[in-house]
Amino acid sequence: MALQIKGVTKKFGEFTAVNNLNFTIPEKEMFGFLGGNGAGKTTTFRMILGLLDPTEGEIVWNGKKIDYASSSLIGYLPEERGLYPKLKVRDQIVYLARLRGMNKGKALKELEYWLDRFKVPEYIDKRVEELSKGNQQKIQLIASMIHKPELLILDEPFSGLDPVNVEMLKEAVIDLRDSGTTIVFSSHRMEHVEEMCEHLCIMHKGSPVVEGKLKEIKRSFGKKNVSIRADFDLSFLDAYPGVTKVKTTMEGKILQVTGEDVAADIIRDLVPRGFVRKFELEEPSLTDIFIEKVGAAYE
Amino acid sequence: MNKFWIVLSHTYLSKLKSKSFIITTVIMMALVLILSNMTNILKTFGSDDREQVAIIDQTGEHLFDGYKAEVAVVNDEITIIASQDEENAEKKVIDEEISGYLLLEKDVDNGLKGTYKANQISDSMISDDLFLALSQLKSKRTASELSLTDQQIVQLNTPPAYETIALAENAKSEEDLNQARGLVYVLLFVIYFGVLMYATMIAMEVATEKTSRVMEILISSVSPITQMFAKILGVALLSLTQMILFFGVGYVSIKRNLTDMNEGFFAIFGFGNTNISTIIYAIIFAMLGYLLYATLAACLGSVVSKIEDVQQMISPMTMLVVIAFLIAMFGLGNPSASYITITSFIPFFSPMIMFLRVGMLNVPFWEIAISIGLLIATIILLGIVGARIYRGGVLMYGSSKSLKSIKNALQLSKKN
Questions:
Q1: Domain A223-283, CATH
Q2: Which residue has the higher pLDDT, A222 or B284?
Q3: Backbone φ, ψ for residue A251 (5° rounding)
């Protein structure tokens, strides 16, 4: 029981937007969907929602194709923000919630709860065009999850928000996941994905370049980061065997190494040269993996 | 089906409550009120505005009293006063005490000659009436000169009996035709404006949802086809509401003036004994025409990316409506012309032109049935193709070049 994407390809004429995508999103989990601009994320989401039909392959949710009969189980926050500019928040949300199968009274109650939680209860009678972009974002997130969907698709949910609001919305999304909603989540912000998602997929030009469990991806990536601060010149490390990348900062260097054995060699070479203030072996960040995988594919 | 009603009622209610709708409806209703009370209004303004004309009789025949009587018959709003000298009368005209003065003289053949002088001669009504009265006076004068009896005068003035009769069994008589023409004329206008206004409203509505990007949320919860037709019917309901308001106001206010109306200007327009079947056909053709053009407008609205492009995108559709209307207008004078018969079967024209034929002629029922059948078939076909364009169009952003966008939209909605 999960969202299964089986060998999905989507072509627009000659152009292949998504190429042979295969993965399974376990139920009640948050799945990170990453990729550069034009990687095919939005097209994949539209196929999941049944707005576009795949050229090949199929997508099933709990064994069934998603269609309009199941739309009350699905929530969607599109990347391009959009609400009726002239409509009041109340009318707007109630209308959208009713289209997701909620009745009016329940929708209103939920709306009040969420506006309170997002600390903007006074917006209920305001027109959307009067709100700031960040606040419109809150309204839109409410619209996508007010009916407590089983599957929620969030396309860039936190872009354009200040840190306080990001935290507030993140908490709401995490609460929803804990209450049993499966969430597919796309972002350019690697730290959000790292923080919230157990499984993820990185797309590049329509093809998945990395896919699986976050921990395993990190482990199998092999490379690690070594952060060093010392009282002597570190330039000999620039051409050290096993060092794949060097970043020089104000205080020292951050190296990318092929494995823990290289780190052990480095520390052995460092100690005789003088006082080492900091030596730290870190797991690779998702940003490193993303740049490596997508960057490599660019070359 | 449930969602269909939610979209329909949302479209209907949100439009009904919008300021622009309320304002236009109130303005239109005021207009209908003014138009239907035109005779009363004109009377109110006209009553204290009696025209005074001075007569200077230089014929030496003391024609003043006779002429005054003739003028009273022609137009009782002109007051005739006698004046002795021209200089005095001219001064009064310049001071605007009187509208003008008429100089009555004899010409060389001892006939009557009148010269009307006024500040402005743009108001030809007074002059025409004065001339008519003078002609009457002249006839009487000549008759008495020839010593004709009253009966002889009547005989001389009676025009010959003249009648036109249509030979075809079911043709309408000339009188019927003139009555029908007025009614058809008015209803054609209603269809024309209705189709154009509400179809444009649909296109705008779709384009607004698309450009505000709320469309993407909508189509993830309601199928584009349901959405499109719910919207079309929602606006149809709105148009019915508006029409009922307009006609209701018109009917009530006309009913109040019914006595003036039957004999006056309205009788010419065929409202005296309104033809029920013409009205029913008007409703049928207006609805079908609306459905056809609204479906077209929804497709066109779905492929634009910017609200500014809507007008440009629907301009071919607007042209079609205008052409249909123009053909219908030409056809009013000659509804049995062959170009009218042909175009009354072409779906994009038939709502107006078949209605024109039905209203003006006795068209065999099978012809009406074929025309309506073709119209319905086109609506269904356009609905099917339109739903596909709509489905792809709403996901598509970029430049809006009509033909290319429609092609792209169809490709986007393709199954495989």
A1: 3.30.70
A2: B284
A3: -105, -15
